[in-house]
């Protein structure tokens, strides 16, 4: 079946809007926030619903998703970030499509007013300005994971402060592209000492801010070459407590700053992925301790 005029209109508008998103990100006029993840996909879905006919509407939605996919790649983010973004992008494309379809059904199709397209584009421009000046910047958050082990706290502390090799199986998020740690080298066990953590994707350097042998290790993340423009790690904190049953409980708390919005979605994603990273390190710790 030969594509109709409506299909080409839908395809052209979708690509144009995706390119607008690329420009907004590269020029830093927009962050990874409401405009990129909510408003832009909604507008793409809306124009698809307005102009597409029958099965071509589904093709229009797929086109919109692929353009957002390329948009994120073009902005320099990894495959993991893209995969995590697709559910929220898809939801707003679908919402926009339903709105567009409703408008199409309830307007006079013989009056193809340019406002149908001009108004959504104007919405992108105004919302970008609003988000830039009124939405705030990074939001601080933290994630904690605890593990109880049948070992004295001093032994656990020595095993976690420096890690020779991390060689356990990757979790599902790491297989999708989440950074995978491989070892941590300690320069000096004192305040101001460095803990250099090497990942498959790069390196993170932590500076010790506070420590108490066998109980506490608090570090500031001072350098990272792992590319995540939307998230910045702040602190890495390990606390170890002895229990009455001759076991010890180690807790790792990671604090970070994120610019991702909408927060109702990204709070959940950041929580499960950072916790998966923490649990990965703890699984390796269990393995190392079991060799003693």
UniProtKB/TrEMBL annotation:
Sequence intervals crossing the membrane: 7-26, 32-51, 58-76, 82-104, 116-135
Keyword Membrane: yes
Source domain of life: Bacteria
Alphabetically ordered keywords of this record: Membrane, Transmembrane, Transmembrane helix
Stated name of the protein: Polyketide cyclase
Origin species: Emticicia soli
């Amino acid at each position: 079946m030969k594509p109709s005029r409506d299909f080409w209109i839908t395809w052209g508008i979708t690509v144009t809007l995706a390119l607008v998103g690329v420009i907004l990100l590269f020029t830093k006029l927009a962050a990874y926030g409401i405009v990129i993840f909510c408003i832009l996909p909604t507008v793409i879905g809306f124009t698809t619903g307005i102009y597409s006919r029958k099965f071509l509407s589904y093709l229009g939605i797929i086109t919109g998703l692929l353009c957002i996919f390329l948009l994120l790649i073009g902005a320099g983010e990894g495959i993991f970030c893209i995969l995590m973004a697709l559910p929220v992008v898809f939801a707003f494309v679908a919402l926009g499509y339903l709105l567009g379809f409703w408008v199409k059904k309830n307007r006079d199709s013989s009056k193809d007013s340019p406002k149908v397209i001009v108004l959504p584009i104007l919405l992108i421009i105004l919302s970008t300005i609003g988000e830039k000046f009124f939405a705030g910047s990074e939001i601080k958050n933290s994630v904690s994971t605890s593990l109880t082990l049948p070992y004295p706290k001093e032994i656990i502390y020595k095993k976690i402060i420096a890690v020779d090799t991390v060689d356990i199986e990757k979790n599902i998020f790491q297989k999708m592209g989440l950074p995978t740690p491989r070892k941590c080298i300690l320069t000096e066990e004192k305040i101001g000492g460095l803990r250099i953590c090497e990942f498959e994707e790069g390196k993170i350097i932590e500076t010790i801010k506070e420590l108490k042998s066998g109980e506490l290790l608090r570090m500031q993340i001072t350098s990272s070459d792992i590319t995540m423009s939307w998230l910045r790690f702040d602190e890495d904190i390990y606390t170890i407590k002895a229990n009455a049953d001759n076991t010890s409980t180690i807790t790792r708390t990671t604090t970070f700053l994120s610019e991702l919005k909408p927060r109702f979605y990204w709070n959940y994603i950041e929580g499960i992925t950072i916790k998966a990273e923490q649990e990965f390190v703890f699984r390796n710790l269990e393995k190392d301790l079991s060799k003693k």
